[in-house]
Amino acid sequence: MMERFARYSGVAGIQPKVMIRDEANAQALEQGKGRLSHVRGATHIVKFCDQSEYPQLAANEFFCLLAAEKAGLTVPRRRLSDDGSALVIDRFDLRSDGAYMGVEDFCVLNAKSTARKYEGGYEANLFRRAKDYIPAELHRAELEKLFTLFVLNAAVRNGDAHLKNFALTYDDVNGPARLAAVYDVVTTTAYLPKDGMALTLEGTTRWPNSRLLTKVGLLRCGLTPREVSSILERVATALTETAEDMKRYARENPAFAEVAERMTIVWAEGISASLVGA
Asked: How far is CA 210 from each of CA 14, 40, 74, 196, 218, rounded to the nearest angstrom?
């Protein structure tokens, strides 16, 4: 069965994952409204976790994505398996007519190989490059989303927010580029307490405080002080609410309890040091 589902494509990366085809979903698209909607490839991504190395990683990502959604970002539909060992995510690059959007991650946009995804600083490789490829008339809206995602990664202490974990999408080769839906966000310090940022910010991989995040929002994204403050508050509220959801899930799923406790502590520190601290 796995060979049938995964025959169209595969996904690279350190986290075990496979792309599958939901036949029912594909057939529904093919029957929709007479448009070109022949879905030949995968419709979902299934991510697994090695419980001996990074226990409950799928649940970790599930709640990080929930926090992103609560913060107002676009996140694909996702489901966590009953035992918490796998996360199933709808492909965000699949259009309603069955065609695939164009997707370029920031390794590609910086002309870097995958092996160099941890190389450089966020200023040039993420924010400046986004301005280069996103149309000027979309800068305000899309850079606000990018800043919100960057703030979220900092607050949840995601030390794996490298260049391949940010991307732009476009409907066709001549269409405008926009920030892709959120993907691959995890609290890495739940497993690696001393982990820092994947790339540098002002020459260091130390987690930024609110002053530095504000500077990024103002200078790199063109936001106003009020807008930056609103985003920091929104992310803090999203993390606080999601932490309660996470605790409820952990009470019903004891295998996640230890990781949930670590994540709760890390998120509280992220809020204090990066969102409201100085």
From this structure: 31, 46, 24, 16, 12
Cα separation, 73 vs 229, whole angstroms: 17
DSSP state of 207: P
pTM: 0.87
**What is d(CA 276, CA 94) in angstroms, rounded to the nearest whole number?**
37
Q: How far apart are CA 230 and CA 79, in angstroms?
A: 29
Three-state DSSP class for 71? coil
pLDDT digits (tens, 9 = 90+) for 70-100: 999 999 999 998 888 899 998 888 777 777 8
Q: How far is CA 251 from CA 25, 202, 256, 257, in A?
A: 33, 41, 8, 7
Burial group, residue 155, by CB count within 10 angstroms (0-12, 13-18, 19+): buried
235, 243 Cβ separation under 8 angstroms: no
Residues ≥6 apart with Cβ < 8 Å to 135: 176, 177
Tens of pLDDT, residues 203-226: 999 999 999 999 999 999 999 999
Ordered alpha helix ranges (H), the chain: 2-5, 23-30, 57-70, 106-109, 122, 129-133, 139-155, 210-215, 225-252, 257-270
